Amino acid sequence: MVDISPENTEKRPNRRYIVPAALFVSGLIALVLIFHWAKTPKPVQKLVFEGLVVLKPADLMQFLDVNPEQFDPEKLEWKDWEKKLITHTRIRKVRVSRDREGFLVITLQEKVAEFVVHVGDMLYEIDEKRDIISQNQVLADNLIVISGNFPVSSHQILGTQIEDVTKEMRQTVSAYPALKTRISEVSLEQDGDIVVYLKSPFRAKVFLGDKLDLFRMRKLYASLAYLETENISASIIDLRGEDAVYH
After folding, report:
1. Is the sign of the CA dihedral 152, 158, 161, 164 positive or negative?
2. Can you tell me where the transmembrane regions are (predicted)?
């Protein structure tokens, strides 16, 4: 018979706590591993483009000098793509991010083309600030063309003429939305007169005189409303006088 002193009993580890402690440590290690796995993204496996309006993925791949048929997603050098894409004339904002599932997400906000400006043999898409979005590469649909001998810088259409015309046409489209689908072009002629070309409900040439304002555009709207109601087609409409003349 061996006597065990109380001191020895207290020093001996209690087995009731060993198993829970081991389970707690194992669970903690598992949580750390899971957290590390969740925070570590997979290699890039696929490109995802978000926010595209007129641009296409192929356009952006070409701009980034990436061949879509030969590139290896896992070897992409994509960390400088934001800096390069923001220099694109059609892009206002861009964000490139990789998620943990291996998707490289390119989120864009495109500039919105408001008009097409025709100067010489060049066509420029411009936004509301008259900044040039494209040159001889019109992608937006149903834009009114403004033709004239406007000064052009490297990134903007300049001058009070284009400023006045875009302002008046913006007010016209806001007041009479139906005219946006009927007018194809507004031309500032060399003699100072302004001519509007219609594409709907029939093709016609409209003479406005030397002034482009909301009053004359209202006369155009009223004239077209009358001609459409009466089912009359005209090739020329003259709004330079008090009354509209058509033939």
Report:
1. positive
2. 17-38
Q: Rounded to an integer, what distance in angstroms lies between the CA atom of residue 126 and that of residue 135? A: 9
pTM for the whole structure: 0.77
Q: Give helix then strand counts, H and E, for the chain.
A: 6, 12
Take residue 125 and report the two structure tokens written for it. Answer: 């898409």
Contacts 24+ apart (CB under 8 A), 70-74: 73/43, 73/44, 73/45, 73/46, 73/47, 73/104, 74/43, 74/44, 74/45
Other C-beta atoms lying within 10 Å of the C-beta of residue 79: 9
Domain range 46-110, CATH architecture: Roll (3.10)
pLDDT in tens, 40-81: 556 667 888 999 999 999 999 999 988 877 766 666 778 889
230 with 224: CB under 8 angstroms? no
Could you read off the pLDDT of 79-133 as tens digits, one per residue? 889 999 999 999 999 999 887 777 889 999 999 999 999 999 999 999 999 999 9
Residues of the chain with CATH 3.40.50: 115-246
Who's near 24: CB < 8 A, 6+ residues apart?
Answer: none
100 within 8 A of 38, measured Cβ to Cβ: yes
Specify whether the CB–CB gap between 239 and 208 falls below 8 A. yes
- Residue limits of CATH 3.10.20.310 in the chain: 46-110
Q: How far is CA 213 from the centre of its chain?
A: 30
Q: What kind of fold does domain 115-246 have according to CATH? A: Rossmann fold (3.40.50)
